[in-house]
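Consider a protein example.
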Amino acid sequence: MRLSHVGKAFANGTLALRDLNLAVRPGEFISLLGPSGCGKSTALRLLAGLGSPTTGELAWAGDPTLSFVFQEPTLMPWRTVFGNTYLPLRLRGMGKAEARPRVMAALAGVGLAKFADAYPRQLSGGMKMRVSIARALVTNPALLLMDEPFAALDEITRGRLNDDLLTLYQRERLTIVFVTHSVFESVFLSNRIMVMAARPGRIVADIPVDAPYPRDREYRTSETYNRHCRLASEALHAAMAEAADGH
């Protein structure tokens, strides 16, 4: 899919995006990296069809299915882990008996099969986010959109979920667009990093990360990882300086 020369202006006059170009190829893991207010979440919502561009074009190849993982898990507290994960299939008219194998497979994929009958109040923050990811994957999406899903978690849990997400990415052969503020997270997860500048939001650098998968603890301390972190950090600081200068 492709965003071509996309601009987005809001009713209050804010120009959130201008001349944004982004092509997403099957099997890619793309991170949108940038400071707050640079339009990362706006771009992701346009990809999800949760809004329309003011200018430019959004083009899909075929009729892909997609799922969205938000910053918060957004679980229904009165539904069990199974019930929350089953919800997208229920909305499509699939009965619970028919859906059960897919729901349980999705929960097993995030390590929560044993918690199918638990309620959100019984789960940790990381477990709640795993349920949110399982709910997104239960529909077998062609594209997974993730809006800073791990930002509110502690560093240890965040690192563990980064590892788990890469396992899912490889096993399910997903295509992912991931919004983050973290240089380190973007370099660990992605094979392309799109650095965005603000006022208005636009992509100012496209950084390929050529390290092979799977990636592990050794990768986090490798020269390849450090080199890409330096490149992404320099591009991010340049984008922030450009925005501060009002360009």
Residues 77-140 form one domain. The CA atoms of residues 63 and 142 lie 10 Å apart.
